[in-house]
C-alpha cells in the first residue's frame, strides 16, 4: 500500500507529493521512498491530467495491409513521401480503385473518404516507430493499423 501526503487543494490535477510511505506489512512502513516511486506517481498523474482519453483509449478496430509498390504512388503517378500518404493511398487503392493487395484486410473506418482525409492527423497523434516509418517509406511491408477515435497506431506486422 502506498500512502501520499501533500497536494494542492486549489489545483487537484497538479500532483504535489510532500511525503510518501510504502506499507510492506501490517504496521510496517518504509520511510519516504522519494526517488523512483515519486517519479512514477508524478508521471502517471501527469499522463492522466494531460491526456486521460489517450491513456485508456480503446481501439475501434484494427486491420493488416500490404503496402505494395503501387501504394507508394498517387493516382497521377507521383511518388509519395510520407507514411500517412502511403497508408492513405493503400486504402484508396482498396476502396476507390478496387486494386487492393491479396493480403489487405478491409476496415469500416477508412472505407469512408472523409475518414481517409483525417489519416495524416490521426497518425500524427498516434504512434509509429522510426523503424516502422523507415520500412514503410523504403519497402513493401505488411502493417498493422490500430484505429482509435482520434488517432492511429501503426506497426510493421512483417516484411
In brief:
This protein is α+β, with helices and mostly antiparallel strands and 159 residues long. It has helices at residues 35-50, 52-55, 83-95, 113-117, 119-125, 130-138, and strands at 2-5, 19-25, 28-30, 61-66, 142-147, 152-158. A hairpin with a 2-residue loop joins strand 2 (19-25) and strand 3 (28-30).
Any chance you could write out the topology, listing elements then pairs?
Elements: E1 2-5, E2 19-25, E3 28-30, H1 35-50, H2 52-55, E4 61-66, H3 83-95, H4 113-117, H5 119-125, H6 130-138, E5 142-147, E6 152-158
Antiparallel strand pairs: 1-2, 2-3, 4-5, 5-6
Task: Compute the number of strand runs.
Answer: 6
Helix-strand makeup class: alpha+beta
Q: What does the radius of gyration come to? A: 22 Å
Question: Order of strands across the widest beta sheet?
Answer: 1-2-3
> Roughly how much helix do the residues carry, as a percent range?
25-40%
Count of separate DSSP helical elements: 6
Any idea how many domains? 2
What is the string of SSEs from the N terminus onward?
EEEHHEHHHHEE
The biggest sheet amounts to:
3 strands, antiparallel
- Average pLDDT for all residues: 79
Q: Strand portion, in percent? A: 15-25%
Catalogue the unreliable spans. Answer: 1-24, 50-55
Task: Tell the overall outline.
Answer: globular
User: In whole angstroms, how far apart are the ends?
Assistant: 46 Å
Amino acid at each position: 500500500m502506498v500512502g501520499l501526503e501533500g497536494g494542492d487543494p486549489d489545483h487537484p490535477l497538479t500532483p504535489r507529493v510532500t511525503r510518501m510511505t510504502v506499507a510492506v506489512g501490517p504496521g510496517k512502513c518504509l520511510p519516504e521512498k522519494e526517488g523512483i516511486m515519486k517519479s512514477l506517481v508524478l508521471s502517471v498523474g501527469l499522463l492522466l491530467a494531460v491526456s486521460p482519453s489517450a491513456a485508456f483509449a480503446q481501439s475501434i478496430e484494427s486491420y493488416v495491409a500490404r503496402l505494395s509498390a503501387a501504394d507508394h504512388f498517387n493516382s497521377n503517378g507521383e511518388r509519395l513521401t510520407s507514411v500517412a500518404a502511403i497508408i492513405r493511398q493503400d486504402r484508396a487503392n482498396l476502396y476507390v480503385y478496387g486494386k487492393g493487395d491479396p493480403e489487405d484486410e478491409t476496415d469500416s473506418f477508412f472505407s469512408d473518404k472523409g475518414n481517409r482525409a483525417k489519416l495524416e492527423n490521426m497518425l500524427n497523434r498516434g504512434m509509429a516507430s522510426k523503424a516502422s516509418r523507415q520500412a514503410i517509406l523504403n519497402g513493401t511491408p505488411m502493417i498493422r493499423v490500430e484505429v482509435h477515435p482520434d488517432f492511429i497506431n501503426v506497426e510493421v506486422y512483417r516484411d
